[in-house]
Amino acid sequence: MEHDEGAGKSERSFGRNARKALFYVLKRSITLLITVVIGVYLTVLVANMGGAVDEIREGQIRERISMAVGDSPEFRELSSEERREIIERRVERERRRLGLDQPFVIRSVSYLTTAMSLDLGRAETLRSDSGSARVRAIILERLPPTLILFGLADLILFFTAVVAALFLSRRYGSKLDRLIVGLAPTSAAPSWFYGIFLMLVFAAVLGVLPFGGMVRSPPPAGVLPYMLSLLRHIILPLGAIVISGVFLAIYSWRTFFLIYSREDYVEMAKAKGLPSFAIELRYILRPTLPTIITNFALMLISMWMGAIVLETVFNWPGLGSLLFRAIGQYDTPVIIGSVVIYAYLLALTVFVLDIAYSILDPRVRLGAKK
Q1: Where are the domains of the chain?
Q2: For tag attachment on the chain, is the N or C end more exposed, with fewer CB atoms within 10 Å?
Q3: pLDDT score of 363 more than 60
Q4: What whole-number percentage of the chain has pLDDT above 70?
């Protein structure tokens, strides 16, 4: 009987916790969605310069139609007034088709809804490698290179910094520790700065690595040659990202490890004769992980923001270089589409790290009231 009552309480407790977790996930998802919507709408306003870009588009439409009518043999016999009327009718028809006859406020809301649904329309000038003008096709073609570069850089940076910080926390005040402390301010320089420096040394002077690109041109046939070419081309941008953040991360995380390594329970574990590896993993690393994850999340966001210049420097065919080209050519649909993808990626990163934070820190409860 007591066993049945205990099992019932356990089931009710599990149900309550599951409902709290579900409610928290829904609430957090809605909050992030609202943030993304606000960010994307501001991007729509900025990318269109308050409607000025649409006026530029109207001018381009008028110029294109005027040239087409002027070059057409069937309209040469018409008077200038008749040709002007034909041009005006065609311009007006094109304006209605593109929605440019509506006030900018209404157009901006329409741009927002299509962007949020990833129905991004057609690019103005840019095209995908396959020749498609669909913004979705252009972005999906550029998304994998960015994920490969920054995903691999994030993993290397995280594990390198954690291992090095744990190592230095046991050697506080050593020459290596002082060296890392001295190098920490170098992380103030962005990754593209180190990218240019590495390019000068290893590509221009030594000539052992390529200047840029993702693979050699033309792309090698076969999976293995392609992967080897990719590995050779990714070394410099990957190194630039890691160098720009690793020293500050090691310095910051080593400080957290030092603080926790002086706690009483750590000294007690040492007195019991537990191995150093077990003490670091269970009593030092585990309590500091929530703080490290938060630090790492902020670092990820800053890295995403630096992708535009870094990818442009290395001619890396990712979202960053695509956005740079779109801004230079006033390709509003591609600009909005790129920012939407970035917004979704950042929101997803924050959401996953938020859940990971609650798992790593037993003091945090999903959906718990303060």
Answers
A1: 2-116, 135-360
A2: C
A3: no
A4: 85
